[in-house]
Amino acid sequence: MEQTLLHSTEELLRHLEGIGGRIFLVCGKSAHQLAVCGEVLRRFPVTEFSDFHPNPEFESVRRGIAALRGQNCSCILAIGGGSALDVAKGIRLYAGAGEDFTAGSESVPFTGPLIAVPTTAGSGSEATRFAVLYEQGAKMSLTHEKALPDAAALLPEVLYTLPPLQRRATVLDTICHAVESAWSRRATPESRALAMAALEAVEPHYAAYCAGGNDHAAQMQQGAWLAGRAINLTTTTAGHAMAYKLTTRYGLPHGWAAAICTLEVWRWMLAQPERWQASGLEEALRMLAERLGAAEAAGGAEAFARHTEAMALPRREIPETDAAELARTVNPQRLANFPLPLTGADLEELYRNVIRHQGRREGASA
Ligand SMILES: [Fe+2]
User: Fold this and answer.
1) Which of 112, 135, 159 is the last residue of a domain?
2) 178 CA distance to ligand 1 centroid (A)?
C-alpha cells in the first residue's frame, strides 16, 4: 500500500475534509497544546479518546474500541508519540473483534483509514505495520498490514517544544533504524536505498536540531519516516533486540540504548572481517561507513561512535554482573534478522562492552 504523505496542517485538514464524517481522535492530553489538535477539534465532529498511558496496555485498546462503538466515525486520527500511535493501531486492528480479543485473536479491522500525526521524530511508527502493546505487563509485538497508517502528516512545528534530551534520543533512534535495516538479513535494494536516504536526510542537520534549531525539524521528520519505511521492510536486528531491556530495567532512553548496543554489535562484527566479508555484508557496511564519514567499511563503527558520542545522554548505573542475565532476555526472533549468528556467550560479552561504554560516558554533558 502506498502511504499518503502530508506536509502541513492545511494539507491534513484538506485530507480529513476529503474523507468527511466524524473523526475518532486518539491523542495524549499534551496534544491539546498543539495548534493542529485545536484546528481538528474546531473544524470537525470528533470523538476523542485519551485514556491510555506510556507503554499502553491492551486494556486501553479495549476501552478505545468501546468508545468508538456506535459513534459512526469515518476515520481514526492519531496525534502523539509512540503510545498514541500504538493504541490507535490496536483500535484499528481489533475494532470489530468483540470484547475479549487478545494479541493472539484474529483481527477484524476498522474499515476506515488510519491517519498518523507523530509528535516526535524517531520511532518511525507512522511508517510501519508494527505496534507494541502490553498484556498484564508482558510485551506483545503486533505486525499487521492494517497497522500501517494510510496517511502520515509530518508537521515540523510539533517538534519545536521538544527538549534537547528527547531530540538527541529520537535522532539516535532514527540513525539506528537506518543502520540496522541496512545490514538486516531481510535487506533489499529498496530498503537499503530508504535507509541511506534516511541517513542523508538526518546527518547534515541533526547537530543543529539537537541544539534547538527548529529550522532543521522537517529533515528529522523526513529521516525518521524514511528509516521507518526501511524497518517496515526489514525489521530491526540485534541492536534493538539488546536495547529493549536496558530501557525497561534501567530507564535508558530507547534511542540511546539502541545506539550503544548497535555500536558494540558493529565493533564486534568488524573485528571478524573473514565472517562479514564472506556473508555478503561488505557492501552494506561500506555504504554505511561512507555515509557516516569513514573512508572504508572497517571504519564504520568508529564513525558511528563519533556521531553517537556527540549526542551522549546521561549514563545509568548498570552492574557489569547483570550482563549474563541480560543476554538471556534477548528476543531470538530479532536476532534471526541479524546477519551473523550470535551465541549466548557473544551476547554476554556484548552487554559487558555496552555497560563499560556506559561507564566511559561518565561526566558526559546532558
Ligand atoms: Fe527504535
Assistant:
1) 159
2) 10
- List the domain range (segments joined by +) for residue 353: 164-360
Based on the domain organization, do 135 and 107 belong to the same domain?
yes
479491522: which residue's cell? 109
Final residue belonging to a domain, choices 100, 124, 159:
159
Dist. CA 225 → ligand 1 center (Å)? 12
Cα of 36 from ligand 1 centre, angstroms: 26
Q: Ligand 1 centre and the CA of 254: distance in Å?
A: 7
Q: What is the C-alpha to C-alpha distance for residues 163 and 160, in angstroms, rounded to an integer?
A: 9
* pTM for this model (two decimals): 0.95
Distance between Cα 195 and ligand 1 center (Å): 14
What is the whole-number distance in angstroms between the Cα of residue 347 and the centre of ligand 1? 19
Cβ(241)–Cβ(258) below 8 Å: no
pLDDT tens digits, residue range 38-52? 999 999 999 999 999
What is the spatial distance between Cα 285 and Cα 288, in angstroms, rounded to a whole number?
A: 5
